[in-house]
Amino acid sequence: MTMNPFEQSKQQLLHSLTSQVEQEVIDYIRQEMQHDSPDSVPTEDELLTFFQSPDEPNTLDAYQQMLATDKLLEYAEISLRTLCDLIRYQQLKEFGIVHSVKEFIRLFHPDKNEDNL
Questions:
Q1: Alpha carbon distance 101, 103 (integer Å)
Q2: Confidence class of residue 5 from pLDDT cuts 50, 70 and 90?
Q3: What's the Rg (C-alpha) of the chain?
Q4: Which of 7, 55, 59, 71 is most enclosed, with most CB atoms within 10 A?
Q5: How far apart are CA 66 and CA 46, in angstroms?
């Protein structure tokens, strides 16, 4: 069964976005691991192998596995918080409570001054 051109383009876009996000997550994890344990940062391939099959034998020691998992959860937490803020902003804008991102930030972070926006 062949896909129509639209479906093929959609699949290519999905694959491209998935690869890009995967790379961003791995880069984030490696960068954060570098701060916590500069002498023990796994390669991208080692991290991908671990995350794709965490129960299989891999080259990461127990500390690296724990730290990589912690950093992955941290990244998920940041992403979820960002998504929640975007939904909150969208709803407040639809209700007419805020009209710009600056207003939204002032509402939720009144201690920030204009220079930090």
A1: 5
A2: confident
A3: 20
A4: 71
A5: 14
Q: Are 75 and 28 in contact (CB under 8 A)?
A: yes
Q: Given this model, what pLDDT does residue 109 score? A: 82
Question: Which amino acid, residue 18?
Answer: T
Cβ atoms < 10 Å from Cβ of 67: 20
How many other C-beta atoms are found inside a 10 Å radius of the C-beta of residue 29? 23
Kindly provide the b/e burial profile for residues 75-113, where b requires at least 16 CB atoms within 10 angstroms of the residue's own CB.
Answer: beeeeeeeeeeeeebeebeeeeebeeeeebbbeeeeeee
User: What's the pLDDT tens digit per position in 30-65?
Assistant: 999 999 988 889 999 999 999 999 999 999 999 999
Here the tokens at position 3 are 């896909």
Q: Give the integer Cα–Cα distance in Å for 97 and 92.
A: 5
Contacts 24+ apart (CB under 8 A), 56-63: 63/37
Please report the pLDDT score of residue 80 as a whole number.
95
